[in-house]
Amino acid sequence: MPKNYEKTYEIIKGDFETAISRINFNISDGAVIYTENPQTAYEFINLVHAKNVFVNTSLLEIEQIEETKNELYVKKKIM
Asked: What is the signed CA dihedral for 17, 18, 22, 25, rounded to 10 degrees?
């Protein structure tokens, strides 16, 4: 991670759809959900437009993922 990379975060509480909308409003470097429901985790991974998507873990392993010129190809790190 570059030295000048500033980590900022926001904790979003509320219903699932609102959280997904807030995350997707701006493409973020990472998003994490804490859940015991595998279906919720699966939907989160597929609906969130973040570059790093985590389930039941921290954002400490976040990576800088290169932007792509192909709008149909989105690369994610999923943990």
From this structure: 60
Sign of the C-alpha dihedral computed for residues 50, 52, 55 and 60 taken in this order: negative
Query: Considering only CA atoms, which of 25, 28, 57, 64 is closest in space to residue 41?
Result: 57
Place of tokens 């998507």: 53
What band does 30 get if pLDDT is binned at 50, 70 and 90?
Answer: confident
Helix (H, G, I), strand (E, B) or coil at 63: coil
Query: Which of 5, 15, 2, 8 minimizes the C-alpha distance to 31?
Result: 8
According to DSSP, residue 61 is labeled G
Judged against a pLDDT cut of 60, whether residue 27 lies above it is answered with: yes
d(CA 42, CA 44): 5
Q: Residue 74 pLDDT more than 90?
A: no
**Which residue is it, tokens 């998003």?**
31
